[in-house]
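Let's practice the habit of predicting before peeking. Look at the sequence and jot down your guess about where helices and strands might fall. Then scroll down.
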Amino acid sequence: MVKVATTRLDRALVARTALRLLNEVGLEGLTLRAIAAELDVKAPALYWHFKDKQALLDEMATEMFRRMAADLPAISAPDWRDGLTAAMRGLRGHLLRYRDGAKVYSGTHFTDTGYAATMDAQLRGLTESGFTPRTAARAWFTAYSYTIGYVIEEQTMGPAPAKDTGTGAGTGTEGIDLAARAERLAAYPLAAGAGEEIFGNHEAGFESGLAAIVAGIAMTMLPSEG
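Done guessing? Here is the structure:
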């Protein structure tokens, strides 16, 4: 007997199902066929809502933002550094909730304008702190790009060693064996020693890099401090 889906199929349901399945199979395993099977429908039914996988990824990223928007801290004068730092921490935390979350989020196009209010408020906090509209946009995007890129690398590398104080969530590999890496690179002591700093503690690494980004923004983009 052919099963019949009992829930009305729409874009929101497909995106939510895809995000749930993402944590099981990762981005490479997330196919329209797999999502259709999860929804108990035939794959062609999904094409009524999404013309291809990229269109689905756009909707998934939009749904991810909807879930994180309420949690992203505001940026306000005069403590813009704290606000920007907290906002990027919040972004990273949400991306880590999903396996390959940063890859899904990166390079996609939001399917509605729901992100605009949050973005506008954050940029307003920067302009009220002394940034021009142009430098506020550049400052925000610089911190945002660092965060997205860091999490992509973090999730690709896999879980850090046990001493990592971060969540380690959303990763799909076994991580890097630092001892084996150091042995392979024994002839290159600086490269070998860098492994602990680069791969050893994702949480501390993110915080250190973010602090450098924020300090650089202050020095190069804020007229009163440059």
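How did you do? Residues 1-6, 160-173 have pLDDT under 50 and may be disordered.
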